[in-house]
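Collaboration report, partner site 2.

Our partner group contributed sequences for two proteins of shared interest, and the home lab folded both. The records are reproduced in the order in which they were received, starting with the first partner submission.
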Amino acid sequence: MKEQQLQQQVEEQKESLIRSLKFQEELKNALYEANYRSLQSQVNPHFLFNSLNSLARLAMLEGAEKTEKLSYALARILRYILKNYKGTVSVAEEIKMLQDYLFIQQVRFFDRLQIDFKIDEDIKNARIPCLALQPLVENAVLHGIEPLEGKGEISIHGWLEKQKVVFEIRDNGVGIPSGKLKEISQLNINSTGCGHTTGLGLVHVHRRLQHYFGADYGLEINSRENEGTSIRVNFTYIHQNG
């Protein structure tokens, strides 16, 4: 009988120790997270935005025209994200941000990147989730054009089709391997993050569009290796004031 009681006491002490260790681990993680967020808050995004504007003004005073334009473009992108990230914007606002983004990429690629925008006036007041198009363009730049040896071309066309807004983002890059394309098309990537690797950003945009507009909307992707990629986006036309 005494042995059973002793055994029970040992088990209870063991469980108590496990709970204590678990609590300590959770507390340590919570403190680490709090400290990390505190460090993050010390570098305020508005500080970065103001610094970029200061850099642009300095570049203007020094006569560095391209540096000035680059700094202002980056500052506008940062301000756009800070202001709108969790909401919707007009197509016109999203396109303006894309123009700034692609200007920066053209500076980086020198004369190796050509851009073509054709956006119908009919869709410029339509609502779209903020940064719904940017990951698609970034995918074209980083995974299509950057590995390409020759000159790259990216076209962004948008139009209205039976009360749907349609965008087509096309590049003449290296294309997506067939196996990877099949995986992306079937949306079999088990991730909800918005990574920069081929596929994750595309799937995330697809899911965001379906969240906002319904399961009938999203992305259609076509690609051929060594020929390029075309991504078609479609969503319901919702007027900016409607």
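Second partner submission, folded after the first:
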Amino acid sequence: MSMNVPPPDASGAAAVVEVEAAGAAGGDVIGEAGPGTLVPLDMRAERRQAARERRRLLLRRPGFIVGVIILAFWIVCAVAGDRITPYDPLTPVDTSSLRPSSDHLMGTDQIGYDVLSRVMAGARDVLVVAPIAATLSIALGALLGLVMGYLRGWVDEILSRLVEVLLSIPVVLMALLITATLGSSRIVLIGTVAVLFTPIVTRTVRAAVLSEAQLDYVTSARLRGENGLFVMTRE
């Protein structure tokens, strides 16, 4: 008895040859997405190339380099503390109100303290106070701005007047009043900075919410019967 054996599929053979060639070349292949079509598996090389490009672009920016140097200076001062200051930050030198010189790079203040030594000694407080205060001001300002921009009405009126009052007071004067009344501990400093910068964030977020509240997706959420909390947090 004779049997008719079908000839091998030429497209399948070509796909197998392409897979073997890709494997021999060192490429990773998932398989066939169709006749003669291969899907690459190794995306790590592309990610590494993109990361190298980002680093190269950052290193070409002078602002980034200056920022890294300043941040490194503060970190070194915070870690080393008084061990690297040229003078004792808590002991006045002989002469007050000196101009910057080779002995005192940033001069001395009215009391006689070396300014550079006191700046370096205060780096630890700066690295603690600044991030926490910024986080608090952003969180509180975003919450207030979201509520004011979405609810409007009497809530917006009352909070807007409060924000305007805080913005009308000079920042330095407000900081001096708070620290003179409550002291200058880290908790007081963090709270003071957070309170002073919260109105700025609040006004910015409120303006953004007022513009977004008029868009179609917010109107659609309201028509679906979603409550205000859902719209503010999820939409």
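Feedback sent to the partner group on the second submission included the following. The first strand starts at residue 29 and ends at 34. The chain has three domains: 12-40, 62-123, 124-234.
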